[in-house]
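Subject: mismatched residue count in predicted assembly?

I count 872 residues in my input, but I want to confirm that the predicted structure covers every chain. Input:
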Amino acid sequence: MSPLTPARQRRKEARPQELLDAALQVFVEKGFAAARTDDVAHRAGVAKGTLYLYFASKEELLEAVIRHYIASEIAAGQEALVAHAGPSAALLREVVVPWWQRLVDSPASGVFKLVITEVRNFPEIAAFYTREVIEPGERVLAGIVQRGIDSGEFRPVDVHHTVYSLLFPLVMLCLHKHSLGPCMDRPMLDPHRFIRDHVELLLAGLLSPGHGAAATPA
Amino acid sequence: MSPLTPARQRRKEARPQELLDAALQVFVEKGFAAARTDDVAHRAGVAKGTLYLYFASKEELLEAVIRHYIASEIAAGQEALVAHAGPSAALLREVVVPWWQRLVDSPASGVFKLVITEVRNFPEIAAFYTREVIEPGERVLAGIVQRGIDSGEFRPVDVHHTVYSLLFPLVMLCLHKHSLGPCMDRPMLDPHRFIRDHVELLLAGLLSPGHGAAATPA
Amino acid sequence: MSPLTPARQRRKEARPQELLDAALQVFVEKGFAAARTDDVAHRAGVAKGTLYLYFASKEELLEAVIRHYIASEIAAGQEALVAHAGPSAALLREVVVPWWQRLVDSPASGVFKLVITEVRNFPEIAAFYTREVIEPGERVLAGIVQRGIDSGEFRPVDVHHTVYSLLFPLVMLCLHKHSLGPCMDRPMLDPHRFIRDHVELLLAGLLSPGHGAAATPA
Amino acid sequence: MSPLTPARQRRKEARPQELLDAALQVFVEKGFAAARTDDVAHRAGVAKGTLYLYFASKEELLEAVIRHYIASEIAAGQEALVAHAGPSAALLREVVVPWWQRLVDSPASGVFKLVITEVRNFPEIAAFYTREVIEPGERVLAGIVQRGIDSGEFRPVDVHHTVYSLLFPLVMLCLHKHSLGPCMDRPMLDPHRFIRDHVELLLAGLLSPGHGAAATPA
DNA sequence: AATGAATGAGGGTTCATTCAT
DNA sequence: AATGAATGAACCCTCATTCAT
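Triage response: the counts match. Full output below for your records.
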């Protein structure tokens, strides 16, 4: 009983990840319904049937894609947060901005499009996304804003709405990257700069008038 | 000798609009690829074949839907704009906010989801949307912001980024209404209040410190 | 109770014939299955529904077309025959040749294509065509040939085969006119001359060596 | 490492031919438009979808059928011709007659019906058939007849018309086999004998009076 | 008698899924 | 484990037929 050679072993273990990567690309580009499993398999370098050795159906592949990339990004976010403390503005500038800058550059940014598009056809995804992304995400940011208010750093704004004024453009940036973006001759926005400017604009609206940190940092 | 009696004539003239309404609903809910022409026809109260008396194909129906609802909303927006003059903050509060409040309540808000979802599969839609929505929309808002800066009402921010910090949350609100929104037990946001608060937050970040209009209006 | 005006009356009485003419054209050009009843109706200058006031179904229209044009041509042939007597060669030259020359010029020539094409799908047509065309047609020509043999004018050939050696090219000429013919840049054959030459060539093979009529007539 | 075992490989290689055979049968029997792809697939012993693994559409299947059977028969004809030399009458009797006798017995004879029926709907087929069948076929037979005239074996007839007096009945025999033939109680013609007798009748009309070969051979 | 909008069954085609190899 | 040929359910679209006007 010879064990699998290392090369083959590595291959076999890498398969699910390769399939997830391929599926993310194809699903985000075409939409789930219009995507062909053939395309996914070929982009992963395997034959159509092989896909079904790892995922029971196209739908389960979709769910696996969404779960996988969301889990990765959440983990990264949590790491970044625990490593930081300090005033709210600094947290936004030094944790939130870089985390979104990294996300918008990664293929995982396509998951937003996938969720927006497919969530009404797959209630499981809605529940998962709400539980794993929306609720914890809002909790984290609401905490930051609330602490800023409590400390006098921020004006006493509506926390809930502020969170979405902050988040929605960052999500839209990711959506744009995978929808209209690729159809345009010239890029509509520079993602990293937009993220930074957007956060600064919000901070300008949030920071208390007498607060020393009001000036935009270099 | 009119060959059609009034009753029948009325039906024939109303059909395209009824089909567009039904198609918008079904396409936004299911996505274009997953939508069945049967569903569209039945929701419009006609049989499958009837749809093809008015639209040459499912794809042309999609394009007609997008063109129709975009054209309507743009017309409404232009009317609102020409009827107004005054400081930029007032324009945002009195024209932009009500226009988006009306839009988010109307079925036409679903077009954003449709465009985001399908634009990569239908280049014609990309061209149309860029030409008819993105470019004029940005032009209008950039004009408002720029005038605010020029008059000293606003701080000298990056106009381009400011426009998208303003717009993206409003678009996301529409997307949310047709994607995760219907899956949630309780509404995540009150649309009209969010629109107002978002614009006020941005204005707080935009208005020049010494400017008298800085205070949120009653 | 005003009677129909003469114009309308005439119109109404002419309808079936106009529909038959249109149907012949469309059926012959496209084939029965590929022909659309819309096309037939519009070519007859009426709306689609009107066709069904005169014919119960597309299939009955087909049968009516075939019956109508065959009946006309057979009647013409019988008239020509009874008006003639004389040697067999003269009958062929003076009755058969002109009858086919007229037929190949008339739209009725398309019926051959229709019958060849559709006979296997519509057994009724097979029975009708065999009974009304094949059998009487062969009887007439076999009679002519047989009389030629009996009188010593013709060599003692196989009558049955001779009939089809005579007829088949004339039928093929009609088929060609409605199939490959219209696709060609230049006409492949001059129909009238081909009919005459074909009959002469056969006569050259039929006539007894010593017979005086062997020479081709001017 | 051949990925396909012999048994499976053999199936895959045989499939196109099996599908062409089935398609020829169904198309000739029903006509192209009335034929159902289901019928073709089932007659080939496969499911409907399998057909589309080998042919892109029903129309391409039609073209493949026509091209395939025509190419086969032309190849056979050319072989027979190059193997022969001698007087024109002998060529007709020893090459043309047997070639048509074989053809009328083979399913390929149905192609004539297919071409006659469909040529007006598919211009590609018209061009192909004219180029590959009509023109070379006429060239070959016109050559035979012309050489007969030049050598004094044949009377100085119109070569072009003679070719079609010769060919048309043979084509009609093939058409008959697939149209009215199957509808008749008793066969109207014995194909092999008719072909022979038809050629002999034409030869009787063609051969010069003084020529020794005038007598029909045993 | 005539119209033509509406119907819905039918057929071409696609593609997720299976399974023999 | 991997393949890819085969399957057949599903869906877009057409068009013969109907019927309200």
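Residues 123-150 of chain A form the longest helix (28 residues). Marking this ticket as 'not a bug'.
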